[in-house]
Structure formats: C-alpha cells, structure tokens
Design a protein that fits this description.
T(6)A37_SUA5, about 350 residues, binds adenosine monophosphate, transferase, binds magnesium ion, DHBP synthase, alpha/beta, Rossmann fold, L-threonylcarbamoyladenylate synthase, 2 domains
Length: about 350
C-alpha cells in the first residue's frame, strides 16, 4: 500500500488543509497515524468494524487486545458508554484532555472488534492540538492503539512510525516528538474502588487525590516488586528492542560493578554491547555504547526518552543491552513498568 505522508507542525491554513485531507480517509474506512501527547496513535473510525480490523493487520496485533477510543470532547462520551459513573465524571473534569483512559461499560455502538469482545471500552480525550482537530474533522470517535508494530517500543518520533508502518497504513501525520513518551494511564471505572490497569503520566497519587481509594492491579505491582518477579525466562514481547535487554539491580555501586564486569567479559568479542544509564551514572562506564535515559532528578524526562533510546540501540545494531534499575516511587512506576516489560522481566 502506498502511504500518504504529511508533515504538520501547526494548525495554520496549510496545516488545516492537509489535516482535512487525511481526516477524509477516516470517513472512507482507512487507517491514519496521528500524533498525541503520549505516543503516536494508529487510528480508524471506531464505529466501522472493517476499518478497525485494518489496525490489527497493520500492527500485527493479537485481536484479543482491546483498542482505546479517542474523542475530541467530553460530550461525545455519552453515546459510547452504558452510563458514566460519577467518579469517572470527576476524573474527566480534572484530567481531560490528557493522558488518562477510563474503562467503562460500553454501549451497543462500540463494535466487538474495538473492545476485543469485552463489554467494556477504554475512552480517552487526548491533549494534543493536532489529535483533537483530527478527531473532530474525522467526524467519528477514533479507535487507536500505539502506532508501532506489535511488540516494538511505542513510537514517540515520526521516524519510528515510518520504520514500523510506512506501506501498511493509508496515511501518516508526522509532527514533533511526543511530549510524554509513555502510553496513557488506564483505570477501570467499572470496579469499586477503581483499579489502575496500566500506570502512566497521571500517577496513582494524583488519582487518589481526586477519588480517595484507588487500587493498582496486581499485574502492575507484582512485576515491580523484586521478590514477586515472575518466573525467570518468562519472555513477553512488549516494547522490546531487537537487542537482548537485561535490568541490572542493586545499589548504585553494585549496579555499575555488575555492568562493568559483564561488559569486560565481552571484550574482544564481536558483539555490540549497550548500557542504558542516567546523566548521574554515565561516568561509571568506559566501554560499550553508553546512553543516558536522562537525569534521575527528572523521572518524566526519563519516561519521555525510554522508547526512543531503546530504538537508538536498535539503529546502532546493539545486541546486548544492560539497563540500570530505577528506584520505585509514585513518579517512576510507569517508567519501570515499561522498562521491565521491554526486558521481559529479565534481571541480574
Ligand atoms: P495501546 O494503546 O496500544 O497501548 O493499547 C490499548 C491498551 O489499553 C490495551 O492493551 C489494554 O491494556 C488497555 N485497554 C483498552 N481497552 C480496555 C478494556 N476495555 N479493558 C481493559 N483494558 C483495556
Ligand atoms: Mg501499544
């Protein structure tokens, strides 16, 4: 398929005209990649099962993995759900538009292809001017997962989208790098108290400030608590770079010793080694390809950089990547969740 590629930086006259053109493709049942504040999304008309199927094919996504439906104003939600729980309304008022997906009971308008057969649907109102204008022009809610090939790190830059989806979708809107760099926080509003299913930029503490009690799914917490880490060798293919990624645990000194020892074992071997460090610890290493995720003082910067750094290792042909572990707290939960998944929960 020939993919139409357009670059839009602002919604000036030229930008709006270009956006109109690609939004028209949605009405024709086609797929379009668009930027959001979290990561790039691969969208189609959420009411059109045939269009939605094209998303799964383009990504190579298993069809039991539901899609998030994106709207361009709160009023659009009414017809998509069986009812808006009062607590969901509270969260919309505080966090929308923004990186928060609310799971609610779906209405009959949402096809099974979107919800993967579940009776619930995830809905988000993104805070990105191009995403919002695009959804409005399309005239339909937009079902959209991240715009990567299934298993790969989510795309935070236009070039990542081109790598993964050029030739597989009708159009790609290229724009600036995404601000947040991790996918939205997902919270199940059908449960009481509500349960965070996926951590993101809206933190658990922020949700608790609004709602009081909020639980975090065991799928998230079990995998970040070291003693409860899943059986070794259990390999997920989520957010993964092509190289073999391992998380290195311990105190700062232990981590750098472990990594330096490991790297020295590869000395003289034709294997390319990468180290994912931080601004503060880069100086501890002298061999291998050393890349910083950002400053430890700024977890949001590290989160923003994670997926693009993993793809940088790929571009440079790195085969083995040692990533320093990150201290767990409210601000780092989402980053750690993605990093551990990318490593398939492999630790040394
Ligand atoms: P992606 O945007 O590619 O990260 O994919 C959307 C993700 O949202 C899915 O993988 C699920 O984790 C979550 N999600 C979407 N809809 C639902 C739902 N109805 N119930 C639970 N989780 C959902
Ligand atoms: Mg995804």
């Amino acid at each position: 398929m020939k993919t139409k590629i357009i670059a839009i930086e602002s919604l000036d006259e030229t930008g709006l005209k270009a956006l109109e053109e690609v939004a028209a493709l949605i009405k024709k049942g086609e797929t379009v990649v668009f930027p959001t504040e979290t990561v790039y999304g691969l969208g189609a008309n959420a009411f059109d099962p045939e269009a939605v199927k094209k998303i799964f094919i383009a990504k190579g996504r298993p069809n039991d993995n539901p899609l998030i439906v994106h709207v361009s104003e709160i009023a659009e939600v009414d017809c998509l759900v069986a009812g808006i729980p009062p607590k969901a309304k509270q969260l919309m008022d505080v966090f929308w538009p923004g990186p928060l997906t609310l799971i609610m009971e779906k209405s009959a308008l949402i096809p099974a292809e979107v919800s993967a057969g579940l009776n619930t649907v995830g809905i988000r109102f993104p805070d990105h001017p191009i995403a919002r204008a695009f959804i409005k022009m399309a005239g339909y809610p937009i079902a959209a997962p991240s715009a990567n090939r299934s298993g790969r790190p989510s795309p935070t830059q236009g070039k990542h989208v081109l790598e993964d989806l050029d030739g597989r979708v009708a159009a790609i809107i290229l724009s600036s790098d995404t601000e947040i760099g991790l996918e939205s926080t997902v919270i199940d509003m059908t449960a009481e108290p509500p349960v965070v299913l996926r951590p993101g930029d809206v933190t658990v503490a922020e949700l608790r400030e609004v709602l009081g009690e909020v639980l975090v799914s065991a799928n998230v917490t079990e995998n970040v608590v070291p003693e409860k880490v899943l059986s070794p060798g259990m390999k997920y293919t989520h957010y993964s770079p092509k190289g073999d990624l391992v998380i290195v645990k311990g105190s700062t000194t232990e981590i750098s010793e472990k990594i330096n020892n490991a790297v020295s074992r590869y000395r003289g071997k034709p294997l390319s080694i990468g180290i994912l460090a931080s601004d503060e610890t880069m100086g501890c290493y002298h061999e291998g390809l050393i890349i910083s995720l950002g400053s430890q003082k700024d977890p949001r910067e590290m989160a923003k950089n994670l997926f693009s750094r993993l793809r940088t290792f790929d571009e440079l042909g790195v085969e083995k990547i040692y990533a320093e572990d990150i201290a767990l707290n409210n601000e780092t939960l989402a980053l750690i969740n993605r990093l551990y998944k990318a490593a398939g929960y492999t630790f040394i």
